[in-house]
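Hi support team,

I've been running sequence recovery on a batch of backbones for a student project. Most finish fine, but this one hangs at about 90% for roughly twenty minutes before it completes. I'm not sure whether the input is malformed or the queue is just slow. I've pasted the C-alpha cells below so you can try to reproduce it. Let me know if you need the job ID as well.

Thanks,
M.K.
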C-alpha cells in the first residue's frame, strides 16, 4: 500500500532531500513550506505531490494548513516534523516547537489511522538550551541570542518526542527524533556551528545523507527503534538530561497545550 508522507520544511535542505527520497520509494508526498516560490518548485519536481503553504510563525496558518492536509489525506503514515529556523526570542519556540506540536495534535486522527511514525529533526544545540518548560515563551535575556533560543527549541523537540511516545504510543504512533549533523545548507550557513562542523567531519554532512537517517526512521522495523528515541546516523544518540527528563517533558506538554490549543 502506498504510504502518505507529510513533510514540513519541505521546500529546501533536509526536508526537500527527504521528500525526494520518499518519492523515489513510491510514497505519496504532502509538502509544507513557507516560501511560495521554493515550495512551488519542490512540488513541480515531485510528481503527484500536494503542496500546502504555511508560515509556522503564525499558528493560525498552521491551523489552516492542518485543515488542508486533513482534507487531502484520510490517513498519514509518516509525519516529518522538520520545519525550523534560527531566530531570537519567542519566535524560535513558536516555529521550531509549538507549530509542529499543534500540527501533530490537529492531525492526530489521521496519524492514528496510519499508525504513523513521527520523525522530528532535532539538534546537538539542545545541549546549551535554557528552556523554561513551564513557560516556554516567557521573555529571557538568554533568548536575545538566537543560538541559545534555537537550543531551547531543540530541547523542546526532544521533550515533545519523548512525551508523544508515552501518550500516543498506545495509539500505535511511533515518535522518534534525530540529529542530522551539521548540514551543508542555506540554513547552516547562518549559524556558527556551520564553521565548527567543517572542522569535525564526523558531523559535517549533506542534506541527502542527513535525510537518509530520517528515511530510515520512517522505514525501519518498529522493533529496531526505541519509542521516543534520539538517533544520529541510524544509531542511538545521547542527549542531555534536560532534554530527556520525563518530568520536564510532561510539564512542557501541558504548557504547550495552553499556548497552542488544538481545540
Amino acid at each position: 500500500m502506498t504510504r502518505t508522507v507529510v513533510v514540513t520544511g519541505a521546500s529546501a535542505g533536509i526536508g526537500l532531500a527527504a521528500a525526494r527520497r520518499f518519492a523515489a520509494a513510491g510514497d505519496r508526498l504532502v509538502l509544507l513550506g513557507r516560501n511560495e516560490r521554493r515550495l512551488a518548485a519542490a512540488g513541480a519536481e515531485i510528481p503527484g505531490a500536494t503542496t500546502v503553504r504555511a508560515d509556522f510563525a503564525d499558528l493560525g496558518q498552521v491551523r489552516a494548513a492542518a485543515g488542508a492536509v486533513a482534507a487531502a489525506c484520510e490517513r498519514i503514515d509518516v509525519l516529518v516534523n522538520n520545519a525550523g529556523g534560527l531566530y531570537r526570542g519567542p519566535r524560535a519556540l513558536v516555529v521550531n516547537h509549538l507549530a509542529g506540536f499543534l500540527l501533530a495534535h490537529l492531525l492526530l486522527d489521521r496519524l492514528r489511522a496510519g499508525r504513523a511514525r513521527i520523525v522530528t529533526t532535532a539538534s546537538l544545540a539542545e545541549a546549551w538550551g535554557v528552556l523554561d518548560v513551564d513557560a516556554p515563551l516567557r521573555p529571557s535575556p538568554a533568548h536575545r541570542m538566537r543560538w541559545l533560543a534555537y537550543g531551547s527549541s531543540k530541547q523542546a523537540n526532544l521533550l515533545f518526542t519523548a512525551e508523544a511516545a508515552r501518550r500516543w504510543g498506545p495509539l500505535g504512533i511511533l515518535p522518534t527524533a534525530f540529529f542530522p549533523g551539521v548540514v551543508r545548507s542555506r540554513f547552516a550557513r547562518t549559524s556558527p556551528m556551520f564553521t565548527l562542523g567543517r572542522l569535525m567531519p564526523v558531523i559535517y554532512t549533506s542534506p541527502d545523507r542527513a535525510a537518509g537517517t530520517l528515511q530510515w526512521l520512517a522505514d525501519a522495523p518498529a522493533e529496531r527503534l526505541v519509542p521516543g528515541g534520539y538517533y544520529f546516523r541510524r544509531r542511538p544518540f545521547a542527549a542531555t538530561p534536560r532534554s530527556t527528563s520525563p518530568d520536564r517533558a510532561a510539564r512542557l506538554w501541558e504548557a504547550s497545550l495552553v499556548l497552542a490549543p488544538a481545540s
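--
Follow-up from support: It reproduced on our side and the slowdown came from queue contention, not your input. The longest helix spans residues 146-168. No action needed from you.
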